[in-house]
Structure prediction request, 351 residues.
Amino acid sequence: MRNSKVFSTFLLCWILITAVTVSALTEQETTATDLTAAAGRLLAALSPNQRKQVQMDYAVPGRSGWHFIPKANRKGLSLRDMNAHQQKLALELLQTALSQSGYTKATIIMQLEKILATFEGKSSGRRHTRDPLRYYITIFGHPRAIDRWGLSFEGHHLSLNFVVEGDRIAASTPQFLGANPANVKGNYIAEVKKGTRVLRKEETLAFDLLHALSEDQKKMAIVATKAPAEIRHPGNPQPPQSESEGLAAMDMTEKQQTILRQLLEEYLSTMSHDIASARRQRLNEAGFENIYFAWAGATKPHVGHYYRIQGPTLIVEFVNTQPDSAGNPANHIHCVWRNPSGDFALPTKAD
Prediction:
């Protein structure tokens, strides 16, 4: 099924998309310069004590510390500890880093904490840990055009990390989003309606791809009958370094390749236009045919399932095995995009 003509056509399309995007970006500010300006506005609006919490040295070891579990304490300054004007500036900083759809996903994920508080507060005494304002911003170094500096926006089910250098983004991973409940089963809160599935396409497109495979292809793609409980290396500053496994894109039909591209685009579309464009360009240069799709667990919804998309420039992992807080099975998603060459603009140990 190795069809070089199909790959040439697809590669040309993506290269043209990237070229148009890069050309357009030369006529406007980059995400990097906009982030530097937005970070400066936030710092200027904070009190001296708040700045001590939010701003750390770029070289501090904690810069590469990250996690998406609920935690009593995190680095940085929370939205909860800001006034309304400061919160607005903090969210504008987040919005600058993401696309509009990415920002919408992030803010819905934050609001899902209210649903968790509704369920868990009745029996577990954990209501105080479920708060849509318990999301923390940390700025590493000085946000100036002449400096390399870092940004973290993190809380339960969100970890977004950036390194800025001049007019470019030197790193934008790990990029983690989660959802509990993945599918909102009722009108529990006014902010999130019944039927909301904030990470819907990340799940449904993967099922579409799996079901589009032939039986022989599935034998290659399905690497385990049971899904793992979690993504690999959660909270580890270094991404996994294992070899790719599963079904290679070069062994897919044109229709299957299209679905895989759509799935990758859903992850890319979370980030701002130029970050997504730069990732897409690196993917093109490394060869779309070198990307592998691997599946583990159930082949139908509502039962634990997992997939991984891996290539020279990306590692995407998705797992949905946990029940939501109401007990609905496999209704709790974790998904991440990582850089196999090193997250946080740090080289991997292998390098």
